[in-house]
Amino acid sequence: MSAPSDEAEGATEAPEPAPSANVTQPPRRHLLAWLAGGSAIAIGGGLLWAYRPGGYFTRDAIDLRALRADPMSNTTLLGLRAIEVQDSTPAGWFAVQAPRMRLNRWFRDDNSTPHDLQSRLITHAKKQGWEWAEDSDSAVPSIWIGRRSSPSTDTDMSLTISISPADSPSDQHYNTVRISLGFF
Fold first, then answer.
1. CA separation for the pair 179, 184 (Å, rounded)
2. Bias regions of kind Acidic residues — which residues (predicted)?
3. Which of 100, 118, 107 is nearest to 75 (CA)?
4. pTM for this prediction
């Protein structure tokens, strides 16, 4: 005969709920207002991060990146590894004094004198585009001061190559040459 129908077994469909007058979608302008507000907060937070003291786009951070990009800031020069490295850090939120961006490296060559190492480092610096700073006040023969314009900042960079004044062999900087990069 025929297949039993669902109605015959007593199964009934559930009635569809009537739409409630209280349940509605928020108006489009409310969604746009929430989206605009969230975007403003996100963009403001990103700008705060980038331009905060010590942030990516501050003058100190730009100067520090320019110093680190210079070939003389490497920790290995002429096949010698720096025995000590000191780098400045950008000022933080509650810094009392603005730091001077400076990179210091100390090199030692046990096979030569500090004067010989200094002259080799000066020759290497000249090959990298550094020139003697004519207006420097250095009348000391163990100090060489170079100058060149920075490609990413509007100020001149300075390079100082000096023999460490340490007299005691127990001093870490004994027989070392210091390279210091900064800005005039």
1. 15
2. 1-10
3. 107
4. 0.67
